[in-house]
Amino acid sequence: MFVRDNTIASVVRYFEERLSPVFSNREGKMIAKSFIVKRLGWDSSNFLIRQKDTVSESDLLYFRSAVKRILAGEPYQYVLGTSFFYNLELDTDARALIPRPETEELVDWIMKDFSSCSEGRLLDVGAGSGCIALALKSVFPDWTVSAVDVSKDVLNLVRQNALKNELDIELIEDNALDFSYDFYAESYTVIVSNPPYIPMRDRIRMARHVLDFEPELALFVEDESPLIFYQKIAELAVKKLALNGALYFELNEDLAQETKVLLTELGFNNTEIRQDLQGRNRMLKAWM
């Protein structure tokens, strides 16, 4: 047997020890908790008080297989099949990027800016897992929220997550590099995007697990036009933002100032760059 016994406590130790070359003990315990809770259908309180409970041999084999896949480089969120974002549980797989903590900060910025706005219309361009659109729909239940993506598979994942969280949003299949303007409403209170922004030349700096498992279409842009998505989405926003509306982007920190200049040139008289909790220039707001 690869664990001392079949108890939850031993399973947690197994995760911590096997994952220690890659994750801290705290992270290993958090990952163990995620797999145990999902496998056994528990909530967090069960995990805390049932450390002496035992699991079946098939459960142990499931946990061992999960650890092997993580050690092979697969992101644990893909192995688990879910991730949490802004209090939502989202199905997570290789169709879309894994939701990141800095994207939660972007959602939080929008939420605070429009907390007193009971009704509005929001457009999320490049929906991915649906994390931004669904999180904002959860905080603004009376808003009309639309999510755009070029991929049918991605939109199916967004639909899956919307149904899972009982949130009603509109899905639009369209290419952000060549918008079909007739698909869209006359105006939006908020347009938001976390577009592809990593130049191909920077692939060499990327973590192996990102390159091997996360979708390249959502990550990379050509070296000669790294701001192309920002330009096209901002051009849409020039035509479609409501009078007091705002455009929000997640940024490539290395191109933050260039993005700000681009938006100014396109007619946005007001721009603000914000840093994430790590002190990096990762978010931008623009308005007329």
Description of the molecule:
By secondary structure, the chain is of the alpha/beta class. The protein has 2 domains: 8-72; 94-287, Rossmann fold (3-Layer(aba) Sandwich). The chain has helices at 8-18, 25-40, 44-49, 57-71, 76-80, 101-113, 131-139, 152-164, 208-213, 228-240, 256-265; strands spanning 82-85, 88-91, 121-125, 144-149, 170-173, 188-193, 198-199, 220-221, 241-250, 270-275, 281-287. The protein has a 7-stranded mixed β-sheet with strand order 5-4-3-6-9-11-10, sandwiched between helices. A two-stranded antiparallel ribbon has the order 1-2. The chain is elongated, with a radius of gyration of 21 Å.
Give the SSE string.
HHHHHEEHEHEHEEEHEHEHEE
Q: Which stretches are poorly predicted, pLDDT < 50 over at least 5 residues?
A: none
Q: Characterize the biggest β-sheet.
A: 7 strands, mixed
CATH homologous superfamily title of the largest domain? Vaccinia Virus protein VP39
Give me the number of helical elements.
11
Look up the CATH topology of the largest domain: Rossmann fold
- Silhouette: elongated
Strand order, sheet with most strands: 5-4-3-6-9-11-10
- The span between the termini is 64 Å
Helix content: 40-55%
Structural class determined from secondary elements: alpha/beta
- The tally of beta strands, per DSSP, is 11
Mean pLDDT: 94
- Broad CATH class of the largest domain: Alpha Beta
